[in-house]
Amino acid sequence: xxxxxxxxxxxxxxxxxxxxxxxxxxxxxxxxxxxxxxxxxxxxxxxxxxxxxxxxxxxxxxxxxxxxxxxxxxxxxxxxxxxxxxxxxxxxxxxxxxxxxxxxxxxxxxxxxxxxxxxxxxxx
Length: 124
Fold this sequence. Notes:
Elements: E1 2-3, E2 17-18, E3 24-36, H1 39-53, E4 59-64, E5 78-84, H2 87-95, H3 97-109, E6 110-123
Antiparallel strand pairs: 1-2, 3-5, 3-6, 4-5
Helix pairs in contact: 1-3
């Protein structure tokens, strides 16, 4: 809050305040729909995942191999939902050399649809 001169004198002089707008931030989410073909090779990916992921300020929100289907079809063996404070952090993680080196196990053992989506704008 910032005091704003009221231009008045007397007992209410200087009491008006302006509320500064808070900074907006927008979370970004990575959604992965994965079909795992080779669980043994994929296990190498799982083994190294959290150590790398922990460095990038993300949150692993869900990993589900049996989601409850409400509509349509869901032919994936695993669905993953990850949150990051912003797009930059999400891309820093995904494009990092160490993650890409680990991801070679995922590439060799599964096929996936992976996307990044913008969350709703949040006010701090």
